[in-house]
Amino acid sequence: HPSSPPVVDTLHGKVLGKYVSLEGFVQPAAIFLGVPFAKPPLGSLRFAPSQPAEPWIFVKNFTSYPPMCSQDAVGGQVLSELFTNRKESIPLKFSEDCLYLNIYTPADLRKNIRLPVMVWIHGGGLMIGGTSMYDGLALSAHEDVVVVTIQYRLGVWGLL
Q1: Which DSSP category does 48 fall into?
Q2: DSSP label at 157?
Q3: Which of 50, 38, 27 is nearest to 107 (CA)?
Q4: What sections of the sequence does the record tag as coiled-coil (predicted)?
Q5: pTM exceeds cut of 0.70
Q6: Sign of dihedral through CA atoms 107, 111, 116, 119?
Q7: Which of 39, 84, 79, 48 is nearest to 65 (CA)?
Q8: Among 75, 99, 106, 141, which residue has the fewest nearby CB atoms (within 10 Å)?
Q9: Which residues are 132's β-sheet partners?
Q10: Per-residue pLDDT tens over the stretch 109-152
Q11: How many CA atoms within 13 Å lie on the side-chain side of 33?
Q12: What band does 81 get if pLDDT is binned at 50, 70 and 90?
């Protein structure tokens, strides 16, 4: 791993991630977990169209998985156990504040490198699921691809 964690300057502000190694791979990946793409859909925004995320002026920590969007807890647990492709156990948390991205990149974050980007929108019949169930680590570490997984509002809160 490089000696210091990855920090990337984005349109909204600086994001702090972490380097993660995958067993059997020499090259680690840089991951940024829970990066907001919209304002939290709470209060007056609960049933309104998503609004762009607010920018920030400090380095913001994005090293832990965000909560999954509100959904049937049993269905979410079953889906997570069936489809999660990682060894680590991620506690399932649910919240209406859930409009986040997880971003997986090769560890070399130089600005002049142009890589393909794969955006993964989870399934679940618009009722269950979340980004923490789909890990882009292997693609980023082995195939030099930026993987972005996105969460969206589900059930009665969905598709606004």
Answers
A1: S
A2: G
A3: 27
A4: none
A5: yes
A6: positive
A7: 84
A8: 75
A9: none
A10: 776 788 999 999 887 777 777 777 788 888 888 888 999 999 88
A11: 20
A12: low
Residues near 142 by beta carbon (within 8 Å), at least 6 away in sequence: 22, 25, 27
- Determine which helix (DSSP H) or strand (DSSP E) holds 80, and give its type and residue range: helix 73-83
Rounded CA gap, 60 and 17, in Å? Answer: 9
Measure Cα distances from 155 to 5, 88, 98, 146 in Å. 37, 28, 13, 29
Helix (H) or strand (E) holding 20: strand 18-20
Cα dist. 9→13, 110, 146 in Å? 6, 12, 16
Confidence band of 16 (pLDDT split at 50, 70, 90): very high
